[in-house]
């Protein structure tokens, strides 16, 4: 199998890396991440103008990429810059709409690609423990309307999303795959309440509650009670995106650490000449390449049948979770006390690597899922 990127993908990566290097330096990123909005609307528009959002979607949906390796290339570059703009939820929600939306709903894809509409996935709940099917938010059909009640946790960019993709239970037990239904809920619908907060790794998220929210059938995404397959499919794209982002962040953390070992002197020589530190660095480099291989495998399997696809994604998320934490710890320790300071970019890469493990399922969750999928 040829793992070399096509010329188009290399050009995309070069363009994005250059833009981030020139326009999204660490000081700029830090200001954006700590701002009241948590991302930059101006830069989000410029990412759209460059075609970066479009690269995440198929031509049929108005994009010009959409393959596993297209997504991987984009998010690896975003990881290198610790970009906080709402790429992840745009990808997940957009893919769900592309898979199960009607013609009117699919028209929203164009607004996602041109950056004019912000969307957010409102799926995780306080007690879901990463289990995709565990949903207690309820939707009841009363006459010609649906009545939605429940709460969603850690909704990325929830304060500024115009539309939420909400999972709700219309039947079955709280952890059953059957009976899950997806709704597209406008942010300004009566009964939708949003409480925003800052995230530890930069940017903002929100708790979103739905109090007797009334929706028409036009809000349904796909068939009633059959939303699990769409949700799993769309979140799979998000898992690949997070894994690729982690690879980019690991590479930068590695580069910072190598540079520090070459320049920091002890006893009159660079500390990188000490054999013990060389061994630790070599072990870390091998681990990063193992993580990279797992992400390449997941990207290649994104178009495969369900079990192959989901096992590859869980294997990559497990590897990235374990190795990301290792890289964060080793890089900080090899820097010594300075590695923990807010002013040093490395500390922010370490935080992001740790937090990626907790998005869309941590390493323990995906190890169990990988095993369970193999036993089916």
Automatic annotation (TrEMBL):
Name of the protein: Pimeloyl-CoA dehydrogenase small subunit
All copies of domain Acyl-CoA dehydrogenase/oxidase N-terminal, residue ranges: 6-107
Family of this protein: Belongs to the acyl-CoA dehydrogenase family.
UniProt key word Transcription: no
Domain called Acyl-CoA oxidase/dehydrogenase middle: residue spans: 120-213
InterPro entries, alphabetized: Acyl-CoA_Oxase/DH_mid-dom, Acyl-CoA_Oxase/DH_mid-dom_sf, AcylCo_DH-like_C, AcylCo_DH/oxidase_C, AcylCoA_DH/ox_N, AcylCoA_DH/ox_N_sf, AcylCoA_DH/oxidase_NM_dom_sf
Molecular functions (GO terms): acyl-CoA dehydrogenase activity; flavin adenine dinucleotide binding
Pfam short name (any one): Acyl-CoA_dh_1
Cofactors, names only: FAD
Keyword Transcription regulation: no
Keyword set, alphabetical order: FAD, Flavoprotein, Oxidoreductase
Acyl-CoA dehydrogenase/oxidase C-terminal domain span: 225-352
């Amino acid at each position: 199998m040829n793992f070399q990127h096509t010329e188009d993908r290399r050009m995309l990566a070069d363009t994005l890396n250059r833009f981030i290097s020139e326009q999204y330096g660490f000081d700029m990123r830090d200001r954006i991440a700590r701002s009241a909005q948590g991302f930059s609307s101006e830069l989000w528009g410029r990412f759209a103008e460059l075609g970066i959002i479009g690269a995440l979607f198929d031509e049929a949906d108005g994009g010009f990429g959409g393959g596993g390796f297209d997504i991987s290339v984009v998010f690896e570059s975003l990881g290198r810059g610790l970009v906080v703009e709402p790429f992840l939820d745009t990808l997940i929600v957009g893919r769900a709409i592309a898979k199960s939306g009607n013609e009117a709903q699919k028209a929203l894809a164009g607004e996602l690609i041109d950056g004019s509409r912000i969307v957010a996935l409102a799926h995780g709940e306080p007690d879901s423990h990463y289990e995709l099917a565990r949903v207690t938010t309820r939707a009841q059909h009363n006459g010609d309307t649906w009545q939605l009640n429940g709460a969603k946790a850690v909704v990325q960019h929830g304060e500024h999303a115009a539309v939420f993709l909400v999972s709700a239970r219309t039947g079955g037990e709280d952890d059953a795959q059957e009976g899950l239904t997806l709704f597209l809920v406008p942010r300004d619908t009566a009964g939708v309440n949003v409480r925003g907060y800052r995230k530890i790794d930069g940017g903002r998220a929100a708790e979103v509650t739905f109090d007797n929210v009334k929706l028409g059938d036009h809000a349904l995404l796909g068939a009633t009670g059959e939303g699990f397959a769409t949700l799993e499919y769309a979140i799979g794209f998000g898992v690949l995106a997070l894994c690729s982002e982690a690879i980019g962040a690991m590479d930068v953390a590695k580069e910072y650490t190598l540079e520090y070992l070459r320049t920091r002197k002890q006893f009159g020589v660079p500390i990188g000449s000490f054999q013990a530190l060389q061994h630790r660095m070599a072990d870390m480099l091998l681990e990063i390449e193992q993580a990279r291989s797992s992400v390449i495998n997941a990207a290649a399997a994104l178009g495969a049948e369900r079990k192959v696809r989901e096992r590859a994604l869980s294997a990559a998320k497990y590897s990235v979770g374990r190795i990301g934490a290792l890289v964060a710890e080793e890089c900080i320790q090899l820097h010594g006390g300075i590695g923990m300071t807010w002013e040093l970019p490395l500390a922010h890469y370490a935080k992001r690597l740790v937090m990626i493990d907790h998005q869309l399922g941590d390493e323990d969750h995906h190890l169990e899922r990988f095993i369970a999928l193999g036993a089916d």
